[in-house]
Amino acid sequence: MNSNSIMDSNSSAPSPIPIFSTFTSPFEGSPRKSDSTSSTRKPLSLWPGMYHSPVTNALWETRSRIFERLLDPPLDAPPQSELLTKTPSGSRMTILYNFSTDYILREQYRDPWNEVRIGKLLEDLDALAGTISVKHCSDDDSTTRPLYLVTASVDRMVLKKPISVDVDLHISGAVTWVGRSSIEIQLDITQPATGTGEAAVTDSVALTATFIFVARDYKTGKAAPVNRLSPETEREKLLHEAAEARNTLRKSKIINEKKGIENGDMNRFQVLLAEGRIFCDMPALADRDSILLRDTRLENSLICQPQQRNIHGRIFGGFLMHRAFELAFSTAYAFAGMMPSFLEVDHVDFLRPVDVGDFLRFKSCVLYTENENSDQPLIHLEVVAHVTRPEMRSSEVSNRFYFTFTVRPEAKASNNGHRIRKVVPATEEEARRIIERMDADSLQSFS
Question: How far apart are CA 6 and CA 14, in angstroms?
Fold first, then answer.
């Protein structure tokens, strides 16, 4: 996947946007940086509809003119009359975390293992991808109404190496492909190696992510066409071809899901169910190395607050991913009996918007495990978010998140001989979910 990296040493990249901590140091008597435009514009802290973090603050400061239009879009203005053709380099953005020198920023992102908190990175990746999509769709015409851009899905996010919180970090991204109303954005997190010699000064890709955004008309809410994309360099053309292949794969997966198990391998379905029935009907004889899916579940809930909303007044997608990740991590920990280690976000679906005041419930479970590599067993989890309305006696799925974890090497070493259990379904619906996810993960590994 390194060949698909956004970073291109031969292309001219824009200057990175520096990220600063959002807390004031007790040892500093004045703001870190003056803003020449602050006297003519409301401070960011007073902007409504914003989820504030070091990255969102930096991005909104950088492109404040565009975002101010989104705060109060001119709904009576005409839509964009003519689509523009833009290049991937035109949307490319890079942000820089000065972890090596900004100790307050470092503490905001530090996890217990002196690595960067993955949940906070999920927020930042979504914020950067959203900003890139806005940049691509902007027509720089204040007389037209802007598009309403929303996260549709995260196709895949792969951690390639641990991300240290003591070393400076870059996230860069650009639009790699567009459909009629959809936009694919690829993001790369890079960090210098922490060794010595030449390897220490060479950036290597630590994480890659692919986001899909869709455009809606602000007034009608219907799908709206987006600016075209014209890749220029060989790297951009390769990324475009790979994105086109992923789009074709996404469409084929939708068709296959509609066909269901009927045209699939019924034998796998029956074998899974047979194992589960032993647990239900003859628990004393069940395999001690297996566990029912329902016995791996965890759940939490929250009321969505105004401070968690995005520029459009809906709950920020990065916040939802962060909360889902934390629950998935806890579920993997309780299931494995050892400290888990994140590997991938396999897929995220944003099925319906989440609003301020919504009662949101997150439900997690382990779908299946893989023990072929005893040194790195794989734990595949699902987290489903439900918007629950007690007054209406209704509950709707808003998001589906799929994660893959393993166990930390030091935890595995101290629990030598401990085996990760196999998960089996008790119902046909659970068996169907397991098989569909196995097939989706298998397809993804070849994409």
Answer: 13
Report the alpha-carbon distance of residue 328 to residue 380 in Å, rounded: 9
Structural contact between residues 290 and 421, judged by C-beta atoms closer than 8 angstroms? yes
Q: Measured between alpha carbons, how far is 396 from 96 in angstroms, rounded to an integer? A: 38
Q: Is the pLDDT of residue 34 over 60?
A: no
For residue 184, the number of C-alpha atoms closer than 13 Å in the C-beta half-sphere is 22
DSSP state of 337: S
Per-residue confidence (pLDDT) for residue 15, from 0 to 100 = 81
Tell me the residue type at 142: S
Rounded to 10 deg, the angle between the 266-281 and 428-446 helix axes is 140
pTM equals 0.85
Judge whether residue 3 has pLDDT over 80. Answer: no
In angstroms, how far is CA 174 from the centroid of its own chain? 15
Contact 145, 219 (CB under 8 A): yes
Phi, psi torsion values for 319, nearest 5 degrees: -65, -40
**Cα distance between the two ends of the chain:** 10
Enter the DSSP assignment of 414.
H
- Among 19-23, 144-148, 157-161, the range with the most confident prediction by mean pLDDT is 157-161
Please state, in angstroms and rounded to a whole number, the distance separating the CA atoms of residues 350 and 362.
14
